Amino acid sequence: MKKIWENFNFSDVLEKSAFDYLTELSEPLIEKTSGLLKMEVEAVDSYLDEEPPRLVALYILYVVATKLGNYRKKILTVVEYSDKGRFPVDIMNHLGNEKLTGIEATNFESTLESILSKPIVKNSIENLFKQSKEAEK
User: Fold this and answer.
1) Is residue 32 in a domain?
2) pLDDT digits (tens, 9 = 90+) for 71-94
3) CB neighbours of 119 closer than 8 A, spacing ≥ 6?
4) Would you state the pLDDT for residue 114?
5) Is the overall model pTM greater than 0.85, yes or no?
6) What is the number of domains present in the chain?
């Protein structure tokens, strides 16, 4: 049984996943809002209810208002397909009610920036910040 791991590729060079990109968003938000807001990524193994069922990883991005009882606002969900690898992924913008499909690693960051810059998303995050500032008083 010990030799089974010899057939696995555990190289040190790994491409970034959607999860990696998403988790990198939290620290700058914490800094910009003095800790009143942070981002949290929930990773869930799941499957799509199709024939045959398709295994996926869901990365759900929340903005968390720490002064509002850690209220979490769901911003987007990234769907990573097990049979495709880390990319391409699909992104569901929960606030804008839009689904973007086939997002490659090369344009993942710009797609995130585009979603987060949309007025409905931007206003929602700014409102959470304002409410948090008021709660801090």
Assistant:
1) yes
2) 999 999 999 999 998 999 999 999
3) none
4) 96
5) yes
6) 1
Q: How far apart are CA 29 and CA 80, in angstroms?
A: 24
Residues of the chain short of pLDDT 70, as ranges, are 1, 12-13
Cα 9 from chain centre: 26
Sign of CA dihedral 27, 31, 33, 35: positive
Is the peptide bond preceding residue 28 cis, with omega within 30 degrees of 0? no
**Pick from 126, 137, 135: nearest CA to 33:** 126
Q: Does 111 fall in a domain? A: yes
The residue length of the chain stands at 137
Range of the domain at 86: 15-132
> Does residue 76 fall inside a structural domain?
yes
**What pLDDT is attached to residue 6?**
80
Q: Does residue 4 sit within a domain? A: no
